[in-house]
TrEMBL record:
It comes from the Bacteria. Pfam families: DUF1015 (PF06245). InterPro entries: UCP033563. This is DUF1015 domain-containing protein.
Length: 408
């Protein structure tokens, strides 16, 4: 069983939601955030990436940045751009992209569930990134960005969600980045909230889809509050948006290499892959990836006998890592090696061609997307995916929901 709780959300005034909502802090850099927030005093970037309001030569990790975030949050609340609910509610958050819809329950989830591995992960985190979000949470005294979670769908939960959407009007309904429509409903009926809380006790586990650093940071702040004696019911929880796994789509996470291929490159590829010049730019099935060398597109089909049963090692990104990046190019750590970079699938194969054709990059690999069933299987096995295995679209916007830790 897992614990989910309604909470007194901090959220935008209805008429300002589309101006407040911003892309997640970790998908844009400081300059991009500054450009996106230009001439928009309501933008959540003023809180989530507060360095945009400070001198450009100041480090985004300076303590002044976190204090500016807290000051801006207080100002947003004082001006009524954001407000805090008087009662605890669940919320529904629907995103529609290219005609496909996904709806999550916005809730607070349990630090204890994460510690007890009822909220499961599939990625490692980096300490310096955790420190950044911990400073942000601690100084703002709030979970300032939601965690993107998933669960195996439950019929009763899905029925409640669909019925509520059909019978009630959303409080927010707007279209934003990449033509994604965002809608939010407030479940302001105590009986429904109680029923949802009870139904989630029959859900075996929640899975982190995206937001491992935010999760670790939120949990560590909660544990810090326990140790300092500054603990309350809110510090034992963190902000999450929980989607049924069958509504989610993982996009491909492609790779580009700076290293020139060796003279026997094609022969070495053929040891593990069937290599065919096809002109196809996106793989059509698991086990295939596409290679672009500046002159042509090739289909690389993994030989069946080379695919292990292990839930991690059988992933296409893991096979490419082993048989190509490590064996041929001797790239052991793709997190730090400067010869490799990663391109989210939303940028398309045109971006891969552009990078290689520029001459700065020598090869591009267009990957088949990792599937949600793969993600759940890896997490259930308590294993870790290779870095940059998943790219989720659409992105959950920040600024629509905050959770007050209530310790200040």
């Amino acid at each position: 069983m897992v614990q989910v709780h309604p909470f007194k959300g901090i959220r935008p005034a209805e008429e300002l939601a589309d101006q407040v909502a911003a892309l997640p802090y970790d998908v844009v850099n400081s300059q991009e955030a500054k450009d996106l927030a230009a001439d928009n005093p309501y933008s959540y970037f003023h809180i989530d990436k507060a360095e945009i309001d400070l001198p450009a030569d100041l480090s985004p990790y300076d303590e002044k940045v976190y204090q500016k975030a807290a000051d801006n949050l207080a100002a947003f609340l004082e001006k009524g751009w954001l407000f805090k609910e008087s009662e605890a509610y669940f919320y529904l958050y629907e995103l529609v992209m290219n005609g496909r819809s996904q709806t999550g329950i916005v809730a607070c989830t349990s630090i204890s569930d994460y510690i007890d591995e009822k909220i499961k992960k599939h990625e490692f985190t980096r300490h310096e990134k955790e420190i950044d979000r911990m400073n942000h949470i601690r100084t703002c005294d709030a979970n300032t960005s939601p965690i993107f979670l998933s669960y195996r769908p439950q019929t009763e939960i899905q029925t409640i969600i669909k019925d509520w959407q059909q019978e009630h009007a959303p409080v927010y309904d707007f279209t934003s980045y990449h033509d994604v429509t965002h809608r939010v409903w407030v479940i302001d009926q105590a009986e429904t909230n109680e029923k949802l809380t009870k139904l989630f006790t029959d859900v075996d586990a929640l899975y982190i889809a995206d937001g491992h650093h935010r999760t670790e940071s939120a949990v560590k702040i909660g544990l810090e509050k326990r140790q300092s004696g500054d603990q309350n019911s809110e510090t034992e929880q963190f902000l999450s948006i929980i989607f049924p796994e069958d509504e989610l789509a993982i996009w491909e996470y492609n790779r580009v290499l700076k290293s020139a291929p060796p003279a026997d490159f094609m022969d070495r590829l053929a040891e593990n892959y069937q290599v065919t010049k096809t002109g196809v730019k996106k793989p059509e099935k698991a086990g295939d990836c596409q290679l672009y060398d500046g002159e042509a597109w090739y289909t690389l089909s993994i030989k069946p006998e080379k695919v292990p049963n292990d839930p991690v090692e059988k992933l296409d990104v893991a096979l490419l890592q082993k048989f190509v990046l490590e064996d041929i190019f001797e790239i052991a750590d793709i997190r730090t090696d400067k010869r490799i970079d990663f391109v989210g699938g939303i940028r398309g194969t045109e971006e891969l061609e552009k990078l290689v054709d520029s001459g700065d990059w020598k090869l591009a690999f267009s990957m088949y997307p990792t599937q949600m069933t793969d993600l759940l299987a890896v997490a259930d096995a308590k294993k870790i995916m290779p870095p940059k295995s998943t790219w989720f679209e659409p992105k959950l916007l920040s600024g629509l929901f905050l959770h007050d830790l209530e310790t200040k």
